[in-house]
Amino acid sequence: MTSDETLVFLARHGATEHNLCVPVRLQGNAVNGPLAEVGRQQAQALSIALSTIPIAAVYSSQMTRARQTAEIVAATHSLPPIALENLHEIAVGQWEG
């Protein structure tokens, strides 16, 4: 990679209680729950995996689960997470919840 290139890492948020249900309950953009404990552990594992990589910014959607994941990753790099309005989950209509 050269100095004029940007490397982007994409990561999914950690698990929520909806993700842990059997069968899984879809969240889409209408269900805005927090991370489950295992989701916080997943975000922490991601943070550790990225801890030796120079990161300039951490972006997320405004959804609680995404913001919480971003906060955990950003903290390792002493960065403020940036929640973007235009970066969001899709709606899955009647399937949500």
Descriptive overview:
It is a single chain. The protein has 97 residues and is mainly α. Helix content is 31%, strand content 4%. The chain has helices at residues 17-20, 37-49, 64-76, and strands at residues 59-60, 82-83. A two-stranded parallel ribbon has the order 1-2. α2 (37-49) runs parallel beside α3 (64-76). The mean pLDDT is 92.
Listing every helix as H and every strand as E from the N terminus to the C terminus, the arrangement reads: HHEHE
| Count of β-strands | 2
Give the radius of gyration.
14 Å
Indicate the mean pLDDT: 92
Number of helices: 3
Strand order of the largest sheet: 1-2
Structural class estimated from helices and strands: mainly alpha
Unreliable residue runs:
none
Strand content: under 5%
Short description:
With 97 residues, the protein is mainly alpha-helical. Helix content is 31%, strand content 4%. Helix 2 packs parallel to helix 3 (64-76).
What is the fold's blueprint, element by element?
Blueprint: H1 17-20, H2 37-49, E1 59-60, H3 64-76, E2 82-83
Parallel strand pairs: 1-2
Helix pairs in contact: 2-3
What brief labels describe this structure?
single chain; two-stranded parallel ribbon; 2 strands; mainly alpha; 31% helix; 97 residues; 3 helices
